[in-house]
Structure prediction request, 708 residues.
Amino acid sequence: MTTTRPQVNALLRTEGDEKDHIYRILHADSTAGEIAVIDVEDPKALPKWWTEADLEALMARNAVKQLDEDPHHADTRPDSAFTAASLKTRDQRWEVLQNYLQDPSTAVLLMRSRGRGQGVREINERFGVARDRVYAWLRQYWQRGQTVNALLPNFHRCGAPGEERIPGDKKLGRPRTLAALEPEHEGINTTPEMRDLIAHGAKRFWGKKVDGRSLSKREAYQRTLETFFNDGYKLEEGVRVPQLKQDLPTFRQFRYWLNKSLETGKTTKNRSSASHYALNNRAVLGSTAHLSRGPGDLFLIDATVGDIYLVSSINPQYVVGRPVIYLVIDHFSRMIVGFYVGFEGPSWLGAMMALENAFTEKVSFCEKYGIEIREKDWPCSVYPQAITADRGEMVGYASDQLVPAFNMRVTNTPPFRADFKSLVERQFGITTKRGIERQPGWVDKMKDRSGPDYRLDATFDVHSFTQLMIELILFNNQSRRIGGPVPKDYPLNPDREPTPLSVWNWGMETFPGLGRQMDRRQVRINLLPRKMARASRWGLVVHSCQLHYESATAKAAGWFEENTGRKKKKVEVSYDPRDVSSVFLRRESDGKIEECPLTPADQKHFKGKTLDEVHDYHDRRRNTRHRGQVQRLQDEAALNARIGAITKKAEQRREELLGTVTPTVNGIRDTRKIERNQLRKSQAFTGGDENPKPEKEKGTDEYIPFPS
Prediction:
């Protein structure tokens, strides 16, 4: 859903004579009333400047339309998804451009034709990078969404990705200089067996400390040769000396396969102490700058355990405990821009879901909980320039993807300094006082020890409690007065104190361009946790609770078919623990995201449920089976005993009638006919008593044992 005023990074489609053009908004100059844009599909495009008045006029008559989806945005996956060569190239480009792009004045200067030539000439003289290459990097940065990952090279379009080269007799790679003079020193190819040995040696001697110290790659190479590439040991002066083989991998080959087999971040941590890694190797995300320039500049996030007990939404008979409440607040306006209620955390998973709610529109979110709002009632659908947290869920690998994906700063407060986030800390107290206190299941800390257990009064489930939180947040944003200092130059109304919503709207008009937009699917794919899904006859199987999902891509590719001779497909999907109704699959063919719903069989039981509720449902089913296991075994034992008695009685009857004579199978059809006629007479509804005793009739139809 679009906002009234397009934000920085939004895409605009214009109608052309021959074809339509798609422009990305790069900068908004409210003082001059100008907007910088660039054509994202033109390989030679440079920024253009439009006036805000012209843009509003074009949008008013639908000559310019804002796009909801952004297929031209840079790849926003975490660094682990890219090759070391791609990351190295990206970082080298960013090292050249970052001082010019991070400074707002120089960044805008490069967008103008007068200052761009001078800036490119300065970069050329300072770094020695060709001017046409600088222009290409800037164009790529602007067209792909102005993030660090926009500078990634297009290596994925080169060669045959995914196809491993099979070495033959000829030596692969760059030939040695010595090989031209001495062909016997041509070198060898690394076989799969050699690669496994190199990877094992790299993990053992370089991936962690050895005898209390970290080895260099050269030392690890030597240790690997001595341990895994020897023809045995020879005793020399009482010492066992390894005898190395003649054909050995080179140090370059060892270094190459070491880098491919080990995770750089994890290995760096294992090779050094925690304090050394924190001092020299960790990502420096912190900052002391807590002042915001406008709405969408700085968000504050924090979590607390709610002072209320909830019941299960599947079976209200069970109390599931106290929920975790996350709030995301805009520092400039005191606006609650997002929240999360559930049982995740405090952890990255809970923070991720709160951020997803903060970065996307709220109309459809509230509609899912039966609350109708207009966009202007909660107009928060942007992601900020920076986020401040409290050294909890935002300190770790998971939050690192916020930097390349959203180009934002992550600031963490010092330990035990909650006053650095006083706005969000105070909001928890206001929420509890206004909406949670005195509700059924509320944690009454002043309760008499001999009084009733307040947990037994629990009434709200996660769904209804989320509805309560939405109403509290709407009241906070629209009606709560800001009693403290308001932003500078805010036009105070003597008859009405400012509210978070009024300050937000004023700030959006006065300081546009701070908050940026990204479509909901891109936000989710960058924030939601990932898990491997396995294709089966019943759909894509995700989670340990065996939920099954449909997929048009999987169905078309035949992943669900059995006995095809192919190995079952495994793919990575993103999932939302708040609602298991669907998962998101990034298609390998075009990189687009496909939403995969639950199969009809699973929708009947789990549509709209949280992952915790599904796990709780299966756990209780399992516990119920365990409780009744003894009784089931006893019932089965009684059944086996009764069947045995019936069998024994039948055997005795046969022995009385036949003795040692073996029954014959001749004439089964005639015998069956006689037996059927006899059975019909005994089971007839008419002709005597309701339950007449069967009488034998004399004649040819009388059943008699066959003679021996």
Remarks:
- Residues 685 and 691 are 9 Å apart (CA to CA).
